[in-house]
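I'd like us to work through together how a protein chain folds, taking it slowly. To get us started, please write out a protein record for me. Go ahead whenever you are ready, and we will take it from there:
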Amino acid sequence: MALLCSLMLSLHPSSESIPLIPEPPQDSLQDVKGQIALFIGDSHTANFKNGWQRQLSDSVGFKYRNAAVSGKTTYFMLNMAVYKITDEIDWCFIYGGANDMYTHSISPQEAVDNIQAIARLCSKRGIKCVILTGFDPIKCTRTDNPYYAKRYASFQQILLRGIEGATVVDTRVVERSDCWDALCHMSPSGHTKIARRLIEELGLKTNRAN
């Protein structure tokens, strides 16, 4: 009986015996303090005071440059990138595609191709390029456009297959309760969730360790 009990315990260890996975020490994370980050996007990146890009920059110490313009498509973003991406930029964050997917004139693949072109501009200069998928449109949006959510989801799936010369971060961490309107322009809680996801996925050192 004692042998049987011992065997059962070995097969079903208590929660106390399961080692916890520790958080990575800050010394093992990327210290980006003082590096220049360029943000390219639309209205979801144009909350200049409290947006995810401001929260991210404040948390990790980026020098902040925001080239986002509300209502613009990835074609505009590509044109913007040609002028804004310079040798002094260290990081480039791209969050676009929502306006492209709301129209019928730009396909998901076209939007991805524009983002891929921006990533190539970054790669040629040795800039670290990060692409955000955005929120989950099926879960978070409530518009009269019957095609928008499905088109946006299709665009995201193409992004997640990979963009050459860039890191694609799945930022579908926002809930409907984090949205202020039918298009999910985010409340502070939504912006915070995206900033945290980027810090975790990119392994960035935060200021609280300084």
About this structure: The two ends are 55 Å apart (CA to CA).
